[in-house]
Please model this.
Amino acid sequence: SGTMLDPNNLISDFDDIAAATVVQAGTPPRNGYWYPYNDDSPGGTDPTCVQKPISGPQAMAMGVANPTYVGDVPATLHAGAAATDTLALHAVWSGCGVWGAGVGADLNQPAAADGGTYNGPKVPYDVTAYKGVTFWAMAAMGSDTGLRMKFPMTDETKIVDGGNCDEAVVGMNKCSDDFGEALNLPSNGTWKQFTIKFSDSSFKQEGWGAPFSWNPMHVTSIQIQSSHMGEPYDFWIDDLYFTTQ
Model:
């Protein structure tokens, strides 16, 4: 939107043909990849939940390798796209009626020793230097358009999910109420630029879980999750950047 975006602040452009990665920009360099997640966890809990690609728990139940996203070619490029910008993240799911589904990426994922997948605790990435994020998004015709972008921290992330939140202490199902902000994508198949600032009054926990303070030093990930259970979702994300103003 007229602002020159700093390449050092790029989180993901989805143009790596091998995988949808968090590019190694920033200080220290970020590292991660985009993964699907949903309410069919453990696999078989929600048999109607179909996500492409399948989630880690679904893959585990089927005995297949953990899937990650690979960029896909959108029908149109967004207004801010460079000519070299050919791929975007394409998220598709339906029937996830327990709490829904989403796409996410860890920002500071350690490299696994043998080129395998790191499965240890979440490692924070300090986002204090940033005011928020900006990105482009587009919903396909017929998709639900209600989403929430959230920024999980170690504080409220469950121990089983690699965080520090103990449900024996805060209460059952009271972890994982992450800070975030609701989005409503255009429903006519056009791209729109969104900017979320950590200082927005609407950037907060949803309120169903244990209360935590926002701590930008403890952020582990970025996730984009359905706001409505059971609905079909088909949307695109591209050129996600941190912002410093």
Helices lie at 56-62, 167-170. The first strand starts at residue 10 and ends at 12. The two ends are 13 Å apart (CA to CA). DSSP finds two helices and twelve strands in the chain.
